[in-house]
Amino acid sequence: MRAALPIVLGISGLAAFSTLALAQASKSPPRPATGQTVRYIYLYQGFMGDLPVDGILREVRQGARLVSATLDLCHDVAPGGRKDRFVAELKPSGPRLTGSAVSQEEKLAVTVTLTRTPAADGVSFEGTIRRGAVETKVATESLSDVSEEDHRAAEASSDVLQTDPKDFTEVMPDALLVRVKREAVVEVLKRLRADKVLVRSEDLTEGCVNLRTGERTLTLTVDPMRAEGVVGRLRGTPGVIEVGWTTSAYYNIDYAVRVPAAGWMRPDGTLDRGAIAPAVSAAVAKSLSASAEAPRWDDTTGELKLKFRRPYQKAPGLDLSEIVEIDCVVAPEAPRSREAAVVWIGSLATTIVDEGDGPRLKFTDPETSAEEDTADADAALVEAVARELKGRVWDTDNARWK
User: Fold this and answer.
1) Which of 185, 219, 245 is the last residue of a domain?
2) Backbone phi, then psi, for 149, in 5-degree steps?
3) What is the DSSP string of 277-342?
4) For the chain, how many structural domains are there in total?
5) Is the pTM of this model over 0.70?
6) Is residue 149 part of a domain?
């Protein structure tokens, strides 16, 4: 079952983030000399005791000899708290590696002293890292390394962002992605208060990637009818690097129906929500053999909220009811399109209720069905909506409507 949307808006009380330390922003390292190889070692929790760590050690080697090393270490200042980072160039001297730096966020002096021990299956380290007045012991088991090519592949962003999509087959009309400079994120969020958007709560906190790149990413959900205006205003906002449409974890084109404009869209290209909402609701109700409650549109996300009621058939004799809720996104098939609209259908969320007289039973939420059963149920709804609204469904194999 595809999950329901769990995003919440909450930006009050945000503290201002520190200005990007340009000297420690990610830069392309120098190319190795002829005959040299570059290997990367990833460092995680345990490298600095109980402190959560996200570290990268870049080693330049000439055969078995270590030529140079760079330690990029991001860590919690306290468990579960804010983060700091330093980048130290380490000087090899036999098995010892030594270097110093100033931390990016708290501007504390950092001294690194490590002993590097090669092994058949990797490299181990022991020593100390002094950060300000606090010294932490370092001790690792053997750590494996990866090539520069593999490291670059691991570092590549998987985010999808289309600044001007030709249609909404690869990205969603209600899903926006905003790349923002770290120092500007609070002001950008404050401005978004006036735009009625849903902000992913995970985007309110910083990770090590943000400290390394100097950027933050905001994932927004907004009414598709207002999305283009939000994008336009964000493009003129100081600190915004790039903004556009992105994918959704909750909807995809495989569970969508393309319907002709006639009857569902006005001449100016806007949706006739008063017409399409009851039509979609009636089609789903017929497929589910259920009675429908009045459909409604979410004021922030623009989602169509559908709710149905039917007898619960798996426990005869108890006169129980099953409440089925489904969210949909309905929007023109492309920005400024007047030819067709698309209905993206979310997964079913079901609740069992006892509505009899007198004392009543209460139930936990039903367990998720087997994946193939859920997919079949979702596909049946898509076919039902397509049939009733004279629409077309997506042909995944040929990447076109059929």
Assistant:
1) 245
2) -65, -45
3) HHHHHHHHHHHHT-EEPPPEE-TTT-PEEEEEEEE-TTSTTS-EEEEEEEEEEEEESSTT--SEEE
4) 3
5) yes
6) yes
